[in-house]
Structures are given as C-alpha cells and as structure tokens.
Fold:
Amino acid sequence: MIFFWAFVVGGAICVLGQLMFDVLKLTPAHTMSTLVVIGAIVDGFDLYEPLVKFAGAGATVPITSFGNALVHGALTELHDQGWIGVISGIFKVTSAGISAAIIFSFLAALVVRPKG
Amino acid sequence: MATKSKSRNQYKKMTMSPKEYQSFAKTMEPPRSILGNCLKAFVFGGAICVIGQAIQEMFVHLMGMSQEAASNPTVATLILISVILTSLGVYDKIAQWAGAGSAVPVTGFANSMCSAALEHRSEGLVLGVGGNMFKLAGSVIVYGTVAAFFVGIAHLILGTGGQ
Structure:
C-alpha cells in the first residue's frame, strides 16, 4: 500500500512543479526554490512528518523533503542546544544528500567526457 | 534633422510595440498541452518515488535499518543512479519527456549539479567543476537554508522549541 501512496503523493508533487512550469511560466530554478520553501514551511507547521509516515518515499524523494530536512535539523538542534541550534542544525539531516551529490558529481566530472 | 526623425518614424512603424510582439510571439509558440505534461510528470515522478520506496524497503529488510534511518542511504542511492544516468547522457533525454517529473525528485537536483560539473569540466577542476557545480542547485540550497532559518527563528520566538 505504501508503494501506491508513494506513487500518488510523489506524482502529485511533480504535477505541482509542472503546473508552476506551464501555468505560472516559472524557470526550473524558480520552481525548485519555491518547492523547497514550501517544504520548509510545511515542516514548520509540523505537517511534513505525517506525510512521510503516510507516503514514504513519495514524500522523501521530491525536493520538498529537502526543505523539510533543513527545518527538521534546525528544530532538532534548537530543542537540544538552544538558540544556536537554528544555525548549527540546519544541515545536520541533509548532509547525506548534499555530500552524495557533490562527491558523485565530482567523480563523474573526473571520469566522464561531456556529451554534446 | 528632419530626415533623421522621418527615418526614425519609419523604423518605428516597422517594429512592433511590445504588446503586439507578445501577442505575435504567442501565436508562434508551440502549443503546450498542460494536461498532457501534468500526466507525464505525475507518472514519471510517481515512478521515481516508487523506485525510491523499493530501495528504502531493501535497506530496511536486507540491512535491518529503521524506515527513518533508511531514507538517507535511499536518497544517496537515487543520487548515484541519477549521476550515472546524467553521465551517460540519458537523464536529459528523459527530462525532455518527463518535465517536472524528472526535475522535482531529488534525482533532478543531482542531475543539475552533475550536468553543471560536466559542462564546465573543460574550464578546469577548480574554477570549472568546483565553481560551477552549484550554478543551478545553489538557488535551491540558498532558499532552503534561508527558509529553514526563518522557520527556526519563528519557533524560537513562539517558544515551541522544536520537536
């Protein structure tokens, strides 16, 4: 069942992005930035976690979960360390995604010849 | 002087006003089927999430991780797949078909970083690859971080103090 909801919720978030492309005529960069901010705000109201429980990867794979993870890190550190946590905690949860993207992209640039 | 203003008037007549041009350009635009694009984005984006879910289940069942702990390696695996597909030149072909369906998932984030890194490889490893990797992905990180900061500050002021 989680697979079904992952498909529906993940697809729905992508449709939201597609509507921003086509209807609002935003560039991909604007769309992505907006979605990240939406994810951050939704988690600010504590609503993203229930969505993850419900849809699994449907909520964690789209870029909105990046905003969610940034806020999550900040709030967890805020809880544990006090006010400085807002700064120090932001990247705590997203480290895996950003590091992996940097490392793999760098290695690819070393090995691969660009096409076209 | 007179001839100059006359020729300028002529010139003015030949060009269109911005409004005219915009309506003219609109007739030349290829028709975008919003519904079709949304359907493609839905199917493709959903499919990537299902693959993500499958990878996550694999980490949970084969390596005994909790669902929450498994989401990090899942994202890393998806990024690795995306980087490989980008390097092979496959991802951009998919992206043309799938639109936001391939851009919105985390694979699109990795694709933007990897393609920027590859594109600027010829300018050197430091200035090219290092300096341009975040050319597109940078805006996502900047706005995500700033938004997270303000959400954190809001929680701090309201005294909700995080979870």
User: Anything to note?
Assistant: The CA atoms of residues 61 and 67 of chain B lie 10 Å apart. Chain B touches chain A through 79 residues (CB under 8 Å).
